[in-house]
Amino acid sequence: xxxxxxxxxxxxxxxxxxxxxxxxxxxxxxxxxxxxxxxxxxxxxxxxxxxxxxxxxxxxxxxxxxxxxxxxxxxxxxxxxxxxxxxxxxxxxxxxxxxxxxxxxxxxxxxxxxxxxxxxxxxxxxxxxxxxxxxxxxxxxxxxxxxxxxxxxxxxxxxxxxxxxxxxxxxxxxxxxxxxxxxxxxxxxxxxxxxxxxxxxxxxxxxxxxxxxxxxxxxxxxxxxxxxxxxxxxxxxxxxxxxxx
Length: 245
What we know:
This protein is of the alpha/beta class. It is built from eleven helices and ten strands.
């Protein structure tokens, strides 16, 4: 199959009747629209290492390429709505909330029907007297299995370093002012232990369904830098709500 471009055909190392220079320009000096793509050497190294490990595991019969792809697809599908569903059920079902606080990993697997992975998961309940803030001071350990990928600020050095020494100031900068009579507890995540917050249930939501309540639960409220949304004048639907100012 020929690969014609304009009125000149591509050869193996020539462009029509003029050769490519190593810098991606033609010999006559004009820029080549097909200049080589620049790769990130560090990223390429990690990709090669990952591919080599995958190939070795497949060769030894430990897993298959299809299982790897399925795991990646599952990981990519995780969003904060999973955690929101758990919070909404905990708000409406005291027995489930007790199970969630006692063994969040088992309760989440029971409710969502998903594999929660290896790290332990701990649910922490906010109340009128206690407010929890989640951080990972070492890197970016985060309950991805329930909340999806972490936000950029969560991984940033300023957040990771300041959340421990000035949690109220950090939360204030992110839009949350915790009253002085409320105890703030900062919880440091690790590779083996991940945390998420059950935010306090907003008032005036007693008649809402679990789906409607889940629409009030945000990612940031499950990290502890925000409260759950208030049910401002809204049009409610079975699947959630549309908030109207």
